[in-house]
Specification:
The chain is α+β, with helices and mostly antiparallel strands. It folds into 4 domains: 119 residues, no CATH class; 110 residues, Beta-Lactamase (2-Layer Sandwich); 70 residues, Helix Hairpins, CATH 1.10.287; 166 residues, 2-Layer Sandwich (Heat Shock Protein 90), CATH 3.30.565. Helix content is 59%, strand content 12%. A hairpin with a 6-residue loop joins strand 9 and strand 10. The radius of gyration is 42 Å and the shape is rod-shaped. It holds the Pfam family DUF4118. One of its GO terms (molecular function) is phosphorelay sensor kinase activity. It is found in: Membrane.
Length: 483
């Protein structure tokens, strides 16, 4: 608040208190005149004036008005109720002592009343301060971003003072929690250790009505808000550092895994190529070697595709090209791709009777299913069966792709971590199955991007694992119109 407004406000308050004091003395004098006409004693009238002084002290700010009222009460009693009347002269020598005792009594009563009033105001201020601080700290405790903390501050000030507060953060000159246009506001800076966090605004109409305790409470809450913002800012920095550490950890794991897993297929491809170039082999043998190259390059292509998609998803650059797709055709495309990469590993497919349409990115869903099928092949012996099922959920609102194998199943300690990047399980035989642990992580990211669900479990009817992917159905034209 500026100095001019503060002076105007203090002047208005002083005039109001002065009028209140004059009113109390006027009422006391009128009551005394009534009792005087009724023939009551001077002591009764003196008590009425003392009562008026007490009321004046209670209803005004500061002890000075009580002191002025005490002195004025003695003069008024002398003027209206002692001989000669309507004069400040005193004929009775006993009245000066009466005036002295009356004045002392009024002063003591006024001082005690003023002290009790200050104590009550201080107690109210401490209670309001405690409640306001509790409200503010509680709202700031669970915030994990500066935006949430700023909104919590606005809510706390608005609730405590019953106003429509606003906050203009330091990082923006236009973005605020409440529109400030078209109204006058008083501003309180919220200062950090190095620079201000922003400015708190309270409407002028409300701020001008605040008393001293409320103004002190605003200042104290601003300091508390600054501490809360400082804590939130520190938490945000810690989260960012942790995210960077996790990303660096992922990158190092990715590079280590890729360098390890690329070496084997590349070495095999190089060896086969040298064999094809330097020897005359029968056509059947050459075809077998070429098929081996095709299988290895297919695995490499799948790995690179998974890495690219994972990178795009982490950076938020992956855009879904949603189109109405036939779920059966997507499943068949995934089966063809998998069987071409893994000759001699047929996949059974239970075809649904009804046509199932889903609104998805077809390319990503095919990759999702291929990853699950290849995961099943890696963990199933050559004689084990791989099966894919497609059906509707019980409420007919979702399509369910189920892929199950006849492998060794999933260890209980592996189940919570299956969809984490670079997690490849704890089985000792895992070294036999090539993989960097990205396939299932990619599957979960694709499913979540489509608003679906994925879960893994061990089969109850047979040994092996079962993965279920649930995707929402495509809305019919009539449903879209209704919505």
């Amino acid at each position: 608040m500026n100095q001019k407004n503060m002076r105007d406000r203090h002047l208005k308050k002083a005039v109001s208190c002065l009028l209140m004091m004059m009113g109390c003395l006027l009422v006391s004098t009128l009551a005394g005149l009534v009792f005087f006409r009724m023939g009551l004693s001077d002591s009764t009238i003196i008590l009425i004036y003392i009562l008026g002084v007490v009321v004046c002290t209670k209803m005004t700010d500061g002890a000075v008005y009580g002191l002025i009222a005490s002195f004025s009460a003695v003069l008024l009693f002398n003027y209206f109720f002692t001989v000669p009347y309507y004069s400040l002269q005193v004929d009775d020598s006993n009245y000066p002592i009466t005036f002295f005792i009356m004045g002392i009594t009024s002063l003591i009563t006024s001082t005690i009343t003023s002290s009790e009033k200050k104590s009550a105001l201080h107690a109210r201020y401490e209670a309001d301060q405690a409640n306001a601080f509790y409200e503010l700290t509680s709202s700031l405790r669970d915030t994990v971003s500066m935006e949430e903390a700023e909104k919590a501050i606005v809510r706390s000030f608005s609730k405590t003072f019953h106003v429509e507060a606003a906050f203009l953060p330091r990082r923006s000159q236009t973005d605020s929690c409440v529109n400030l246009q078209g109204a006058e506001y008083y501003a309180w800076p919220i200062l950090g250790k190095e620079e201000p966090y922003g400015i708190l605004y309270i409407p002028a109409a409300n701020a001008e009505a605040f008393d001293k305790t409320q103004l002190l409470l605003v200042d104290s809450m601003c300091e508390c808000a600054a501490l809360g913002l400082e804590k939130t800012e520190s938490l945000v920095r810690q989260i960012q550092i942790q995210e960077q550490m996790v990303q660096e950890h992922y990158r190092s794991d990715l590079l280590r895994s890729i360098s390890h897993d690329l070496r084997t297929p590349l070495s095999g491809i190089m060896g086969i190529c040298e064999l094809l170039l330097n020897t005359n082999l029968p056509a059947t043998r050459r075809n077998e070697l070429v098929a081996g190259i095709l299988q290895e390059t297919g695995w490499l292509y799948s790995l690179v595709e998974n890495i690219l998609n994972l990178t795009r998803m982490e950076e938020g650059q992956l855009r879904l090209n949603r189109q109405p797709e036939c779920a059966e055709e997507l499943a068949e495309a995934a089966i063809r791709t998998t069987e071409n990469r893994h000759p001699g590993r047929p996949i059974q497919f239970s075809i649904p009777e009804e046509l199932i349409l889903i609104d998805v990115d077809g390319k990503l869903v095919v990759q999702l299913l291929v990853n699950l099928l290849e995961n099943a092949i890696r963990h199933t012996r050559n004689e084990g069966a791989i099966e894919m099922q497609l059906f509707l959920s019980s409420d007919q609102t979702e399509a369910v792709f189920a892929i199950q194998d006849e492998g060794d199943g999933i260890l209980s300690e592996d189940l919570p971590h299956l969809f984490e990047p670079f997690y490849t399980g704890k089985k000792s035989s895992q070294d036999k199955a090539r993989g960097v642990g990205l396939g299932l992580a990619i599957c979960q990211s694709i499913v979540q991007a489509h608003g679906g669900r994925i879960r893994a479990e061990n089969r109850l009817d047979f040994h092996g694992a079962r993965f279920e992917v649930t995707l929402p159905l495509n809305e019919s034209p009539s449903e879209k119109t209704e919505s």
